[in-house]
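Lab notebook, bench 4. Still working through the backlog of constructs that have no structural model yet. Next entry is a single chain of 429 residues. Request: give me the structure tokens for it.
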Amino acid sequence: TDTANPSGRLHQSIQFLFSEFDNQQRRQRVIAGMTEKFKQGIWVVRPPQGYDIVTVNGKRSIVVNEEGKKIRKAFEWKLEGMKNEEIVERITAMGVNMYKQQLHKILVNPFYCGLVAHGMLNGEVVQGTHEPMISKQLFLKVNNIIEESPRFGVPHQFENDNLPLKVFLKCSECGEPLTGYYMKKKKLYYYKCRTKGCKFHRNAKQLNDAFTLFLEKYTLKQKMMKLYRFHLEYVLCNSSKETMEAEKNLKTELAEIEKKIFNIGEQYYALREMNKETYEKYLPVYERERNEIMTKLAKISNPISDYKDAIDKVSSVTLKAHEIWVNGGASEKENVQKLIFPGGIVYNRKNGSFLTKEINPFFEMIPRLEKVLGGNEKGTAPFLKGQSLLAEREGFEPPVPVKIQLISNQPHSTTLPSLRNRSANIGDN
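Model written out:
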């Protein structure tokens, strides 16, 4: 076909019309065939997570795989009243990649109980020929919990102000989260371990009071405010520099990938210097690299532009966190707990202590600052050693020598710049 003249272009358009007509006919036949298969209970598209397609002697079947056996536990845990966040943590620990929204889709998908429901069936649900992962009874019970969660059973009552630490605290013996219950005879709330045979029970008020005292350790006191703000400025300044540098490098890489995608597109579509096989080979590679870079960029927070505003906000939160936990409701308490200890806390039932592996850095520095401010005499290594207290940065007044005790392995005295003059100027800079 010669498209340089009107008759050639007309001929090409006629060919396009016939091709489109042929495609529509093929599509109609495929949809009709798939719909008929679905009505027979045969799942003809890719099965959901936890299933594999197996063909033996020419016979195709959909069976539960090893990952599916682990996913089956999610339904059982949901029936026991476990929260979705905890189920995701457990499933992930077992080696199954999952996030909370994905878990919800699995819990409400009737495919897992042996039924077939697809858009081509127009709302009709039929019995499937594939292997069911769970029973229909279990599926219905789990979905009743999801639909009526605030009013279904004890594990799904509204948040109880008397049990703010349930699920958040974990037993030191078995590692399972603690749950709670109300004893009518004594009219008291108790925390208990959900593991059978663990036999751990603790008065909720006593445990809440103990956690309140523990929380004071990570509460910023007004007398520490100047020193805290001084160190916070150092941390935010360095963090912002690292973020901006990482963002700059990623944007440079993104620009190079975009250029490569544009070049191969131009060579294939415009210049015809690249064949279709080569184009289809390299395009997915470049697009995958671009998506990875964009994902990394999305995870990088924007650089801090106003240090004073950021310092004010962080200082305010660390100053009021303890007060909010003491006076707030269950939801406020949970927010404070997750903010300070994002990894949760293990309760040592033998000596009544709290253990945690992950602490919010803005709260973690508070007890270390208090040691420095209080002049720890035990020789603990100083967290400010060689950092902000020793660095003279632009915008501060000239240092005034003062005598302080430097905490190290061998206590000794040294002269350092005054903290008072430096801290007083942080707000102005």
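Notes after review: The mean pLDDT is 79. The first strand starts at residue 51 and ends at 56. Flag for follow-up if needed.
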